[in-house]
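To whoever is on call:

I kicked off a structure prediction for a single chain this morning and the downstream step that reads the tokens threw a length-mismatch warning. I double-checked the sequence; it's 74 residues and nothing unusual in it as far as I can see. Pasting both halves so you can look.
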Amino acid sequence: MQDRKPEYLKAYQAWQVQLQALHRVLLEGESLGPPKLKALLNREARVKKRYDRARGAVETLGGRVTSRESEPYL
């Protein structure tokens, strides 16, 4: 599990950066033109998938397997 921890932490931090940028637009009213908004949404989605894969690898190694029923939004 230790060898996957840095990968997980890097993916989590990258997702948080994109999520904060998205929150600035959606919650705080930061203005972005349509092409930049689309790019931001695509980046957040890509980075979130990378985070989900890294989290799944860590959870599986740690003895916990997440089911779709317990977390339906994955």
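Update from on-call: the warning came from a stale cache, not from the record. Cleared it. Sanity check on the structure: Helices lie at 5-26, 34-61.
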